[in-house]
Design a protein that fits this description.
Elements (H helix, E strand, L loop, with lengths): L9 H12 L31 E3 L4 H5 L4 E7 L4 H16 L7 E7 L6 H6 L7 E5 L3 E6 L3
Parallel strand pairs: 1-3, 2-3
Antiparallel strand pairs: 2-4, 4-5
Length: 145
């Protein structure tokens, strides 16, 4: 709407400012034990069969930074040490399965190009790398590949 002098009215300017200031709603995507991660690379663990939650770039932050603790293994599917460690990590996940309300065991495949940003943001420089999330992620143990 234009006023008679050829300028925009205050009402129009207010509406335009309101539209540009409102944030866009972003839907949170959280992983579950049945979630199949997005990406092209194979996984070392079977989604829905093992008590290990699969994460990817889309689900990492919304899932891990929730109201429970997480033990996350950052791995590469081509890594020999990761493959050798997988049966032990799988056994550990089965042993702590009943702890699910308190702590969740999860994995993310850093070899998949889709997940590279999440791995880089978490300081992953070698595989496998284990991190625990309480209030923030920190390293508790790692293995060189």
């Amino acid at each position: 709407m234009r006023s008679p002098q050829g300028t925009m009215s205050i009402t129009t300017i207010s509406c335009l400012l309101l539209v540009t200031v409102l944030p866009a709603t972003v839907e949170a995507v959280q992983s579950t034990f049945n979630y199949v991660p997005i990406g092209q690379n194979p996984t070392l663990y079977t989604p829905g069969f093992e008590p290990i939650m699969h994460l990817d770039q889309m689900t990492f932050n919304d899932t891990v930074f929730s109201d429970r603790a997480f033990l996350v293994e950052f791995y590469a599917d081509w890594c020999g040490h990761c493959r050798a460690f997988a049966p032990y990590f799988r056994q550990f996940a089965n042993m702590v399965r009943d702890w699910y309300p308190v702590v969740t065991v999860a994995v993310i495949n850093c070899a998949d190009s889709f997940n590279q940003a999440a791995c880089r943001e978490n300081g992953v420089t070698y595989f496998p790398m284990m991190k625990v999330r309480e209030r923030k992620l920190f390293v508790i143990g790692s293995f060189f590949c």
